[in-house]
Amino acid sequence: MSATGSSNTVRRPSRSGLAVLFGALVSLLATLLLGAPGASARPEPTTSGATTRAAAPAAVPAAAPDAVPAAALTEVTGFGANPSNLQMYLYVPDSVTANPAVVVAVHYCTGSGPAMYSGTEYASLADRYGFIVVYPSVTRASKCFDVSSPQALRRGGGSDPVGIKSMVDWVTRTYSADTGRIFATGISSGAMMTNVLLGDYPDVFAAGAAFSGVPFGCFATTDGSEWNSACSGGTVIRTPQEWGNLVRAAYPGYTGPRPRMQLWHGTEDDVLRYPNFGEEIKQWTDVLGAGQTPAATDSPQSGWTRTRYGSTGDRAPVEAISLQGVGHNLYAYGMAARVLTFFGLDSSGPGPGPQPGACKVTVTTNAWSTGLTGSVTITNTGTAPIEGWKLAFTLPSGQTITNGWGATYAPASGAVTAANATYNGTIAPNASVGIGYQANHGGNSGAPTAFTLNGTACSVS
């Protein structure tokens, strides 16, 4: 009997029907529990429209409840603080390593995380080397990342950088990622965000690679606009120290190691004009204490000019590649592999990059009521001689250098770089150089707590 009108009479299922229904429910529950991803992650369709699913990565513990399907671009939701409503897409290779490295690949204006996934080789390189790729995706109408607002240009200030930091934290928790091997790279708007991420979170990112970007803080606006015409036109020109101060102001008081930077730009860029390339070089060489004079210049490919600052190897503090006659859309196949070389990820394990201990610094101070002297000994603990050096450190608040010996010091307060004198520029393996300074102080007579030599973090005693 079927229900009619307002009657609440319903057909009672037969016993056999209930048995069939129960069996179907059991089957469905088994499928959901054993085969489906958690509610926080859903696989993205492939280009054919079919959804790719794969077994969980072998290196990820089975107990990790949020681990996503391997070898599939997957959207992750509920990953943490996300004030600007970014989307997070993740690629975890089948061969993900234990304690993997993480590469954050940031898209261009009008782009998306899935577009960055399909238009670059980072996922296929992850298959080869076992790292994880995060693809942030903008949801605002412009599809451009916020690199302009005061919130974006301050550590923990809000907007897109906070959301991206939450994505990194989620991956670190879920996959026990190596916090010493977190990297950022991006194209155009993503390159600008790469500069911002390295400025806001120097303690999170080990290095970055920016394709057609602008310096940190160059695009800053105060009227809510996303676009800065003076910056895009290449007319914002500052000294290295002024650019460096913008980065240092993003995280006041930070004295730890700073991330290395690789910069790419085309000489015919008509969107973010070529002078921005030189301004980026000024900024990051100042931040890393690498000096404005290249340590090496070569041409790895026809029409390319590569300059390295601070050292000559593949993992120099700053590496800059200029492409003659190339416009804004310079990214091409093969460049991602060069990024991985700079990051030190083109091997099965951590690369041989600068690690604390390649140099050692011993520092002591002798203070009186309003002044002090600081004695610094720099030891080369590596196996090759150091030819020309710059020692970067931050003086405690209230200290100002009035005199120095063994090096030239600039500026006199804040983030200081000590450059070698004409007679002590070479430090042989296991040899040391002594320098020092006299300074005024306003009550804090302490010594600097962290030093980098040509961009390499030194151990301190």
TrEMBL record:
Q: Which organism is it from?
A: Streptomyces liliifuscus
- Key word Protein biosynthesis present in the record? no
Q: Which GO terms describe its cellular component?
A: extracellular region
Supply one GO molecular-function term: polysaccharide binding
| Keyword DNA damage assigned | no
NCBIfam families noted in UniProt: esterase_phb (TIGR01840)
User: Can you give the residue ranges of the CBM2 domain?
Assistant: 352-461
An individual GO BP term: polysaccharide catabolic process
Q: Which UniProt keywords apply?
A: Carbohydrate metabolism, Hydrolase, Polysaccharide degradation, Signal
The protein, known as:
PHB depolymerase family esterase
Classification via SUPFAM superfamilies? alpha/beta-Hydrolases, Carbohydrate-binding domain
